[in-house]
Fold:
Amino acid sequence: MGAPFVGRCTLGYDPLQKCWHSTWIECMSPVLFHLSGNMEGDTLVIRGEAWSCMTNGVAKHSSTNKTISANETIMEMFQSMPNGVEVKTMTMHYKRA
Structure:
């Protein structure tokens, strides 16, 4: 949308609840996202609900983290729209320098 974008993510495994937890905060949203989930095959899938600037209300969100190699990971974020259609909102491709 023409403005600079800044976001921060935390991700960690909770051995007591036996699941992964993630937080996400960014300059386009006024709230902290909290998502949780587990591995599905070779992909970490986490889900939660948070406010959406696309719908101006609470929406379901999910994120996938797939390790390509020891030096490369792809993270994708998705949001469910009011009509039930899930749209990809972001892709980040991490490569070790």
